[in-house]
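Practice problem 4.
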């Protein structure tokens, strides 16, 4: 089996969002090599990120070890790869799939604070790494 080293990834997320917080907690629980550095960009006046706070609050942002900024679906793919989960790259490399994923992400991100808690729990359980939602209960 070929061993590859995945460089560190700094991830800017909205910790005021139950979906975002739960998803990042699930990612961090899989981060045995310490590759993810999670940064809460939700505090008013936050200005330490790769983009203005307004942009960071609109979509997940990640910065890789080379300084490349990834946004939305690309940032999610990088997070998943960093913790050893399938990134969906093969599927998302198909032009129609990538366009659909980008549109779906934008819609979900825009309305994430309005999602009912049971739906948030369902979405997180559906995407959670094994063992992070014991007994079907995800903390949100």
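Answer key:
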């Amino acid at each position: 089996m070929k061993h590859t080293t995945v460089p560190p990834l700094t991830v800017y997320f909205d910790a005021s969002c139950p979906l975002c917080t739960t998803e990042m907690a699930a990612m961090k629980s899989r981060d045995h090599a310490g590759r993810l550095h999670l940064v809460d960009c939700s505090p008013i006046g936050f200005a330490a990120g790769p983009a203005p706070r307004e942009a960071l609050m609109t979509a997940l942002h990640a910065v890789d070890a080379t300084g490349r900024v990834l946004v939305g679906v690309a940032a999610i793919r990088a997070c998943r790869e960093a913790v050893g989960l399938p990134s969906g790259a093969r599927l998302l490399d198909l032009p129609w799939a990538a366009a659909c994923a980008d549109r779906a992400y934008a819609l979900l991100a825009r309305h994430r604070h309005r999602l009912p808690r049971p739906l948030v729990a369902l979405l997180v359980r559906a995407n959670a790494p094994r063992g992070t939602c014991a007994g079907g209960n995800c903390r949100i």
